[in-house]
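Researcher: Quick test of sequence recovery. Tokens follow.
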């Protein structure tokens, strides 16, 4: 997903869930920041590098294909953008090395979605926004994995857009090209993707890189034949999936606000959306690369307040000049803590399943603290029984 959904649509969902204008802005800002909190960003603000929630292209270009580098990449992308659906999935006739990657394929309504939402309960608005990013991305990024894999994430010549026509759809072949500076040509079906590499572990085969931004467009409907599914045809209907993501975010945030006693998979708040359904489906089906203006207009109708554009520099000075002992009380400090919690949770669950692709996780209750120092404060937080960031 892109800024149009993670920032503006998340603002709309937060308003519908009952948050105030100010609270909704904090939530959607945090949701969008997940796509921008790289090690480059954290270096600039002198924050802990372990809190990185994304990697810039230049950072990925410097990454190796050794196991340590692959684990680092997987910790970030599986934790925040391609949440694994079933860490214990079974697939016949495959080696363990491939099975570990197969189990990292992202899909909706997995156990880790529940864990992600529960992790934000009774915590900061920044934690809520981060959780909404992760939840929403399971809908856009389903069928891809947050680890480099040619077998899992590659595309081939069988890739077709499904264009609405009368009572059905017509198929149009999609062409992927490697022209990073060229914008996608939606009308001609030309999309920029990464260059195919013969190596299984190339970063060019990370997530949906081979399919470019195509899965991030809310209007897109397509079908393709992934190798991981034995070349069976998979159909992806983004307008439907994005609507489900929107309704699930509302339900999740109502739970986080205390309206429900528990969060359950497969639940969507369609009642809150019903008065606005025509406008929302109109946005989702409109063939445009960026729907920010339309979502912003809807958000301002909902709250009656102006929604400012996202500004990555908005909270940097506050964090940089704040004394070290007080940094956790700043906006970015609360976001960083939420990021460390999410990455720690997902990494631990992957390792606990017997999969080392995200690295090793040590249970501090049994072995004491032996982790990266950036996480020491989280351990102290758990020991003290604190509920809020």
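Model:
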């Amino acid at each position: 997903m892109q800024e149009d959904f993670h920032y503006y649509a998340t603002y709309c969902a937060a308003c519908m869930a009952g948050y105030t204008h100010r609270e909704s802005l904090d939530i959607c800002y945090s949701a969008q920041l997940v796509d921008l909190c790289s090690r480059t960003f954290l270096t600039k603000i002198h924050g802990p590098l372990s809190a990185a929630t994304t990697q810039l292209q230049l950072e990925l270009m410097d990454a190796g294909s050794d196991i340590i580098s692959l684990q680092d990449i997987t910790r970030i992308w599986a934790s925040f953008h391609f949440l694994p659906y079933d860490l214990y999935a079974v697939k016949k006739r495959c080696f363990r090395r491939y099975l570990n990657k197969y189990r990292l394929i992202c899909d909706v309504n997995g156990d880790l979605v529940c864990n992600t939402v529960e992790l934000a309960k009774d915590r900061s608005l920044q934690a809520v926004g981060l959780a909404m990013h992760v939840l929403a991305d399971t809908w856009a990024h389903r069928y891809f994995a947050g680890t480099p894999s040619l077998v899992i994430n590659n595309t081939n010549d069988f890739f077709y857009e499904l264009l609405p026509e009368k009572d059905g759809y017509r198929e149009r072949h999609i062409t992927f090209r490697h022209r990073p500076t060229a914008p996608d040509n939606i009308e001609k079906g030309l999309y920029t993707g990464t260059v195919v590499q013969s190596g299984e572990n190339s970063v060019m085969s990370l997530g949906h890189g081979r399919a470019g931004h195509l899965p991030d467009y809310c209007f897109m409907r397509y079908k393709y034949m992934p190798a991981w599914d034995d070349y069976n045809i998979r159909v992806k209907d983004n307008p439907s999936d994005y609507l489900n993501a929107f309704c699930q975010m509302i339900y999740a945030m109502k739970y986080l606000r205390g309206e429900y006693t528990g969060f359950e998979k497969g639940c969507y708040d369609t009642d809150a959306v019903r008065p606005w359904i025509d406008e929302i489906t109109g946005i989702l089906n409109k063939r445009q690369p960026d729907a920010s203006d339309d979502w912003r207009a809807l958000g301002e109708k909902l709250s009656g307040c102006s929604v400012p554009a996202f500004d990555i520099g908005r909270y940097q000075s506050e964090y940089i000049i704040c004394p070290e002992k007080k940094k956790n009380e700043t906006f970015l400090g609360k976001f960083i803590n939420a990021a460390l919690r999410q990455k720690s949770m997902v990494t631990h669950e992957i390792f606990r399943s017997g999969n080392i692709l995200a690295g090793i996780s040590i249970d501090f209750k049994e072995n004491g603290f032996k982790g990266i120092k950036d996480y020491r404060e989280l351990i102290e937080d758990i020991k003290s029984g604190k509920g809020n960031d």
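Strands lie at 159-165, 168-173, 175-177, 190-192, 221-224, 234-237.
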